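Incident log, entry 3
Record: HCP-like protein (502 residues)
Problem: checksum mismatch between cached and fresh output.
Input:
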Amino acid sequence: SESYPQLQYHHHALDGPPNRADPYTMQSTRSASPASTSNSGGRSSFTELQVPRTTLARPNSAHTLGADLDPRGRKHSSHLSVGGSPSPRGFARNASATRLSTDARPVSYIDQLSYMPPAPNLDNSFLRAAVGSNASLLDSKRTLEMYRANVKKTNDPKVQHEFAKMLVQMAKDQLRHIPPTDAERRARQDLLKEAKEILTRAASRGHDESQYYLGDGFFTGLFNKDKEDWTKAYELFQSATKQGHKEAAFRAALCTEFGWGTSIDYAKAREFFRASASWGHPGAATRFGKACITGDLGLIGRQFQREGIRWLGIAARKADEQYNAGPYELGLLHEVGYGDAFYDEEYAAQLYTESAKFGHPEANLRMGRAYELGQLNCPKDAALSIHYYNGAAQAGNAEGMMGLVAWYLVGAPPTLEANDMEAYEWAKRAAERGFAKAQYLVGYFLERGIGCRSDPLEANVWYVKAADQGQEQAIERLKLIREAAAGGAHGLPETEKKKGLL
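Fresh output:
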């Protein structure tokens, strides 16, 4: 299947579940695809904390158009995938031969860490074939001139499109300083201007990839001096859709759903979503399937709920690193039993594992809990629980971070030694993301000096933040502190130092 750059949008969850028992009262993904600045499910930009002796470093990924793309335009996942050979019986259950699943449950936590995503290929081999093998021996400026000269000699829109993408990547690489120098800004704008002109010519000749790429550039402001032009973007998405471009159809659907560059039109949105999904787009299949089940976009009725399950099945089979929510959403249905989605916790676990493999935060969180508590017919397995919590945490999920906090407080030898300092650091990461329970916990750690220097004043700041969100433990703690200040008893007994925190 074809690959495309990361989407630049946020999708908001729907209000009002259907009248019948609805699995979407569970924590469902909030985006049709991972947003570049968020979760669907998208990746966070916070500085990663490494779990000592238990994780490998995860490569950073930028989410701007043309950044770190492979030759086909798709970014590689920054999340550790679940891989490995099938597990022996007694450690984890065998994979079903008749159901959607990953290869099998990993043999061990260490085996899972051995998988690393493929490195992006940015050698411009598509263009180099037209220049010659000696191009690699030239400096970048002379190589660019050789590429430019050869592109001018051809009328092939594919070659022109690839050259334009290379110019976009070079434009990104110009910004080496923070803030960028005037020379860097000028060089960047010159490269983007040239790329825009080349893409415009190719798009005018009906090249669908150029139409989509140019549209995405207008949507993000990349080709318009950082000023978004959603109207122009929507027009280009429409043009590419007429030629069967599934990603452009998906983007056009989002534009008509949310009124980006055009008026809100749910009828058109349904048409675009259905077309893109029928062409095998996992993001469109996920969004359209959820709309059918929740009654959104005017899709109300039992027949649409049945159709929604079918579309989610397609999304689950087509899922990848960029659109990884399909298996998770279908798993939510099978975990509780919903309509034609029969009740099967084991199958739900397989679907969650599939999404987690592609870096879905909530799927990683769900499997972390399953292996911690022995849910979904999974055995209690500290190593796998830590692995999945870590996957959620690295994706910016605050509850996943709190899962790691719990494991660091108690330890799970030999996989993970207890480490109060790491527990504090992960709790602080979650607290900085506004998670009320983590804010209370950071305050408690600071008050007691658990994993950090004792600082009652700073602890009080975090208690107040948590209490402002209605966190009951923080409210009670502030009450005790006020009583102590007035001459009452202060604090909890030392024997309660780590009990009942999580």
